Amino acid sequence: MSTSTRPFTRQVAAAVDAADTPLAAPEGCVVLTTPDGAAAVADAAHACRGRLVVTDPAENAESLAAAAAKDGPVRHLRVVVDLRTSGWPAPPSESLRLLHDVAFLAASENYDTLRDGGSFVVLVLDRAVPGAAHPHGALFTGLVKSLAWELSGCQVYALLCDEDTWRTGLPHPRHEDSHAPVPPVLQAREGRLQTHTLSPMPSADPQGQNGITSRSAIVAVGGGQGITAAILRTIAEQHRPRIWVVGTTHLAHAASPYAPRTLADILRNEPGLPVLQARERLDRLRRAAATQDTITALRSACGADRVRYLTCDITDASAVEAAVDTIYAGTPDVGLLINAAGIKRAAALGNKTLATFRAVRDLKLLGYHHLKQAFAGRQPDRWCNFGSFVGAIGFPGETDYTACSDFLAAAACYEHSLRPGTHSELTIEWPLWGEVGMEATRQSRARHTQQQTLTPISTAEGIACFLQQMSWPWQDHPVITWLGDREVDLITQRWPHMVPTDGSTS
Predict the structure, then answer these.
(1) What is the rounded distance in angstroms from the CA atom of residue 296 to the CA atom of residue 233?
(2) What pTM did the predictor assign?
(3) Separation of alpha carbons 230 and 392, rounded Å
(4) DSSP designation for 477
(5) How many CB atoms lie within 10 A of CB 201?
(6) Which whole number is the average pLDDT over 238-257?
(7) CA 159/CA 372 separation, integer angstroms
(8) Which of 321, 322, 291 lies closest to 309, judged by CA?
(9) Residue 19, pLDDT above cutoff 90
(10) What is the mean pLDDT of residues 151-158?
(11) Shortest CA distance to 355 belongs to which of 367, 345, 369?
(12) What's the rounded mean pLDDT across residues 27-35?
């Protein structure tokens, strides 16, 4: 396993060459927006003789995507995200989530036309918040980051701006070759375009120990398996804290010693069961067995009465509220929350279904908001989100996971901007874990090894990285992205600006 991963932080870099335009909308383009944004873009859509599609929650995503392509395949698409009246930490409105759905569907269903000299541009219109953009805009910038890898031949980027910039005219990137790779995320500030970059993190002086002791109470959401379980086991062995593990798995599925252990066992017991259903059942049994093993190991290290497991669907707000009530009934305060729940369903743009896209996105998106709601007024001392490096750079097949990971990063930055100096929320954008986790299957390891696209880290290295970050000053760096040499090479080949060689930012 490689040990060449390094921590990076997100920065805003110097301006890039730009020209002014109201919307940079080619004639006949399709403009997607919410009811909040309709008034702001109606004139621009009319001026370019384009089609304006507004995401009315009374409609469904499929019918709205069909309306966008009413006059034939879409070559030029503009998505306008109006967040000027969006609150926080309230979850996104139904019309905003619907806009995200339709943007994904429109990209998928017009794949061939967009790649033939087309353009996919997202405009995020936000209030001016010093140092941070509204996190819901990151759902769209994350989508763009992945689309940029898949829509070759199409100009793909997102532009963030405030209301003053919108009124005075938007800058947009100027390229002699209109299909040259544009930086995936741009920010308009005082008439200039700036780019988002990743800079090597300066050496951080540990603030004493990692803050975890035997008196600590830790809540790990999605902590029964994978990387979080590996981290919890080490914490339990070193510190013996009180631990609450929250997950969707029902441990009763692992209780019986006679439970089937292979696909053949299941099909033999139920000959008429479709193979797909048998695989799903086997997956549930294996998840339950892995979670039970984790709980057993944690109780062995900490004591049986110091580790609890709660079954909870974090996409259900009332279930999350009840789980947090249960935690606080047995624990006076929570020292550390690890928000790690998530699923990955990597698939090429044309093969990914809307149902899959929503499931991957909503587990992290809605889960985060429901946890914020449940912990309101009883905030944990420290809040740590687990995201992925794809949230920073995008990756093919990861339109959904990139969107929700970028959201978690933006949420930590936004929380930092609201409470500077007392910030206690961190998002870790993990690299590929090679031995455990969602990408640790034999097929996944073989694919990445053969293609040499990613830098896998060992479980021991990942645990060491986490414990190291627990002792760093979170208020200085609310987002930490771990990248290996292969990931850096991948980025610089496509977007040389993204990892500045001289470390300059402004």
Answers:
(1) 10
(2) 0.91
(3) 24
(4) -
(5) 16
(6) 85
(7) 28
(8) 291
(9) no
(10) 93
(11) 345
(12) 91
| 408: pLDDT strictly greater than 70 | yes
Task: Specify the pLDDT at position 377.
Answer: 92
CA separation (Å) from 352 to 116, 258, 293, 380, 447?
Answer: 21, 36, 33, 36, 19
CA–CA dist 197, 194 (Å, integer): 9
Stronger pLDDT, 502 or 187, i.e. the higher one: 187
- Residue in this structure with the two tokens 């621009």, named with its chain if needed: 44
Q: Residue 419, exposed/middle/buried by CB under 10 A (0-12, 13-18, 19+)?
A: exposed
| 466-to-153, 214, 260, 268, 282 alpha-carbon distances in Å | 39, 18, 36, 43, 31
Write the CA distances from 493 to 388, 486, 496, integer angstroms. Answer: 20, 11, 6
Burial class (CB in 10 A: 0-12, 13-18, 19+), 151: buried
- Which pLDDT score is estimated for 173? 60
Q: Is 428 helix (H, G, I), strand (E, B) or coil?
A: strand
Calculated CA dihedral for residues 165, 40, 18, 105, nearest 10 degrees? 130
> CA torsion sign, 86 to 89 to 90 to 93?
positive
> For residue 243, what are its two tokens?
């631990």
Q: Rounded CA gap, 323 and 310, in Å?
A: 7
User: Which tokens sit at 86?
Assistant: 């969006």
Q: Give me the chain's average pLDDT, please.
A: 86
**Dist CA 33 CA 78 (whole Å):** 9
Per-residue model confidence (pLDDT) at position 505: 42
d(CA 195, CA 187): 6
